[in-house]
Design goal:
The chain has 483 residues and is an alpha/beta fold. It is built from 13 helices and 22 strands. Helix 7 runs parallel beside helix 8, helix 8 packs parallel to helix 9 and helix 12 runs parallel beside helix 13. The structure holds S-adenosyl-L-homocysteine, iron/sulfur cluster and FE3-S4 cluster. FE3-S4 cluster binds next to helix 2 and helix 6.
Length: 483
């Protein structure tokens, strides 16, 4: 049987308001043959993009391990390599196409190696078309709605010696009981929803991920309970729009109520991302403010500070509404840190409109921010707009914006000097094995001297220096003596 199902952008944007996502339990069932396909073979998964993709990567690893495959760090030793891709901007895609070219050299040396591509790029008509025509050695292509079909797709390649290409463009269902190999043993991502119905005019996510569909709260709570019982210290609740959680369910909790129930479980740290300003309720703010284990850190994407651009982007708020929400959060949540996303150079953005963004940035003085040059995404409404702003101007605006953002993040970090912060220890610093690293409650990265902590400990660290992107510190209690 040849597995071919190609992405279709028109289907991807279709929303039937009456459609209720189906909950598919025990979503990956393996036949006895599939359970041993990977015995003696190695796999490697390379993940790009957002945390939703990281979580998908964990599920893909889980499925492969259930099929008998063993993880390897070395690409040359892998029998299957899967690129779990992101389509959010053109440069994200170019990186992946470069990597595929590189992987071809491995395939030349080892012809039975399977090279696969999945994730958001697999949902794009043009990408799959190019892969089919120009990259015949990419034998496995599957979409974001097809992850549970991985065993059948691999079986088809191995047994029928055929390419497996299967991408559904549909509103999407909810898969439960997926196997997974989590990246960490002390902190975990928990999907609370998938997809997005906001259709911001620049954004490809609603097309690549399908409609917004929330998991039942009982399934989310059972997952958090399991993680808590297994020693996890932190969960991050994931969704493109976490505060719209439950709006697609008839009779379940709101996001504020869900946060309360997750908090009741008693896990030390709860985070969530991303919050769309439009759905941010007062109940949510009150819940965050009232619970010690809900971390005082909020990612609140601005995108632009100009009302006309916000309208063209389809963001559903004005700069004034955004600032009102921002002030409310800052006033009610003690010691909160707020980060943001900003796009510069949306089609026809004027210098004046860009300066409105700078004004909001100067007001909000964000703790941290991600800034991007607008990248047209085929199939989205903004990609059809004629744009009179040159790339040079866009780059220059990005530079000016980044200089400001850097100033503010450094200012916040310097203000931490002398403070004692609770840090969840992640491991050793990449550059110096004498130094450990972890995050404060407000999600600031700290590199600190300490010789007696373990990954997963929450320890007091005295902050000695604040820099642009991180803090330096020293553990307060060091049984073997601080060096
Ligand atoms: N759901 C989140 C965003 C997910 S995408 C939200 O609504 O905020 C992450 C970020 O990528 C976005 O916040 C936006 O700043 C940026 N982004 C999305 N599409 C983009 C595009 N076409 N060009 C440039 N940046 C984009
Ligand atoms: Fe994209 Fe907007 Fe949905 Fe965020 S809310 S994922 S920016 S469409
Ligand atoms: Fe990228 Fe898809 Fe996430 S486009 S940002 S991986 S939802």
């Amino acid at each position: 049987m040849k597995e071919i199902n190609l992405p279709n952008i028109r289907q991807a944007q279709f929303r039937d308001r009456n459609y209720r996502a189906e909950i598919i339990r025990d979503a990956v069932k393996l036949t006895p043959e599939q359970k041993i396909i990977g015995n003696g073979l190695n796999y490697h998964v390379i993940t790009y993009g957002c945390q939703a993709n990281v979580r998908d990567g964990e599920v893909i690893s889980g499925i492969l391990e259930n099929m008998g495959y063993t993880y390897t760090d070395a690409l040359s030793e892998a029998d299957i390599i899967i690129l779990n891709t992101c389509a959010i901007r053109e440069n994200a895609e170019n990186k992946v196409l470069g990597e595929i070219g590189f992987l071809q050299s491995f395939k030349r040396k080892k012809s039975e190696m399977i090279i696969g591509l999945c994730g958001c790029m697999a949902q794009e008509e043009k990408v799959v078309d190019v892969l089919m025509k120009k990259y015949p050695f990419v034998e496995l292509i599957f979409g974001t709605h097809n992850i549970n079909r991985l065993p059948q797709l691999i079986e088809n390649i191995i047994h029928n010696k055929q390419r497996s290409i299967e991408v559904y463009s549909r509103q999407g269902d909810i898969y439960e009981d997926l196997p997974s190999v989590r990246q960490f043993k002390h902190k975990a991502f928990v999907n609370i929803m998938d997809g997005c119905d906001k259709f911001c005019t620049y954004c490809i996510v609603p097309y690549t991920r399908g409609q917004q569909r929330s998991r039942l709260s009982k399934d989310i709570l059972a997952e958090v309970q399991y993680l808590y019982a297994n020693g996890y210290k932190e969960v991050t609740l994931l969704g493109q729009n976490v505060n719209a959680y439950g709006k697609d369910l008839d009779d379940d909790l709101s996001f504020a109520e869900l946060l309360g129930k997750v908090s009741d479980i008693g896990i030390e740290r709860i985070r969530f991302t991303t919050s769309h300003p439009w759905d941010f309720s007062d109940d949510m703010i009150d819940m965050i403010a009232s619970r010690k284990n809900i971390m005082p850190f909020i990612h609140l994407p601005l995108q632009s500070g100009n009302d006309e651009i916000l309208r063209l982007m389809g963001r559903r708020y004005t700069s004034e509404q955004y600032l009102t929400l921002f002030d409310k959060i800052k006033t009610k949540v003690a010691d909160v840190a707020i980060s943001t996303d900003i796009i510069v150079g949306f089609p026809n953005e004027t210098e004046q409109q860009f300066e409105d963004t700078l004004k909001v940035v100067n007001y909000c003085q964000y703790d941290n921010a991600y800034s991007f040059i607008y990248s047209p995404r085929e199939g989205t409404p903004a990609a059809k707009m004629i744009d009179n702003v040159s790339l040079e101007d866009k780059k220059e605006r990005l530079q000016r914006l980044n200089a400001k953002l850097g100033e503010y993040s450094k200012m916040h970090n310097v203000a931490y000097e002398g403070r004692i912060e609770k840090v969840l220890v992640d491991g050793y610093s990449k550059t110096d094995k004498e130094i450990m690293c972890g995050y404060t409650e407000s999600q600031k990265l700290v590199n600190f001297r300490c010789n007696d902590a373990h990954v997963g400990d929450i320890i007091d660290v005295k902050i000695t220096q604040g820099m642009k992107n991180s803090l330096n510190g020293i553990a307060v209690e060091n049984k073997k003596g601080v060096q």
